[in-house]
Amino acid sequence: MESDNFGQGSELERSFDTVFISLGHDLPRPTPNFQFALVIGRNFEFDRAWPEHKVAVELEGIYRRKKYVVCHICNEPVRARKRDGSLGKRIPALGYHQHYGRFKSDVEKYNLATQLGWSVLRFLHDDVHADPFSMIETIRKIIQRRESYTPKIDQLTKREDQILHLIAGGFTNNEISERLQIKPNTIRTHTQSISQKLCSRNRANTVARGIA
After folding, report:
1. Which residue from 79, 32, 39 is spatially nearest to 56, judged by alpha carbons?
2. Which residues lie closer than 8 Å to 96 by C-beta, 6 or more apart?
3. Where does the sequence pass through the membrane (predicted)?
4. Phi/psi of residue 62, each to 5°?
5. pLDDT higher than 50, residue 63
């Protein structure tokens, strides 16, 4: 379902939406300011996202007029150094990532999202305004790749579904073998089949894709 917030937000977000409507009309429309919990008790937000494909876009580097990097000791704007050692222009601050706490939160968000199988694309102001064709083409390739590798959860057998839930419960292959009274080699065959059907790379990715 399309969000009423599409086409709204910051100048960069509005520009992205305008470009997307023009150049990405063949693609599903993203959800603006998509919020979700990657871990219990922590909510995260992506600027634009396609949750059904686990693809997200973050728009970075919005220039703020008269905002400069400030020294945390003397509270004065930081100035660049020229080759002769003299002071040059003040260094502009781009976006809010000059704040360590928010930068750290974003790093945590990207790492957790990647572990759960998300593809997170980050674009700058110049990507949106100066090279929108390349930006949209990058998004298109990622979404098309995800569509061709859609997890086939409904194709899991009852036994595979049972093993998947035991994997999610933290059981090893040997423990699953003992619990279900099945040979370890048979368990390995089942887990390989589950991974192929869910297009997963490892056990954590298998659980993320297979357990709703």
Report:
1. 32
2. 102
3. none
4. -75, 120
5. no
The number of CA neighbours under 13 Å toward the Cβ of 36 is 19
At position 78, the amino acid (one-letter code) is V
First-to-last C-alpha distance (Å) of the chain: 19
Q: What is the CA radius of gyration of the chain?
A: 23
| Band of pLDDT at residue 93, cut at 50, 70 and 90 | low
* Token pair of 160 as six digits: 């595979």
Q: What 3-state class would DSSP assign to 153? A: helix
d(CA 100, CA 96): 9
Which domains are assigned to the chain? Answer: 11-61+97-148 (3.40.960.10), 64-93 (no CATH), 153-210 (1.10.10.10)
Residue 144 sits at φ, ψ, to 5 deg, of -65, -35
pLDDT the model gives residue 174: 94
Question: Which is higher by pLDDT, 25 or 196?
Answer: 25
Cα–Cα distance, 82 to 196 (Å, whole number): 57
C-alpha 132/C-alpha 85 separation (Å) is: 39
Rounded distance between C-alpha atoms, residue 7 and residue 17, angstroms = 5
Cα 171 from chain centroid (whole Å)? 28
Residues 6+ apart with CB under 8 A from 168: 207, 210, 211
Whole-number Å distance between alpha carbons of 165 and 159: 10
- Tell which wins on pLDDT, 98 or 112: 112
Q: Provide the phi-psi class of 62: left if phi over 0, else alpha when psi is between -120 and 50, else beta.
A: beta
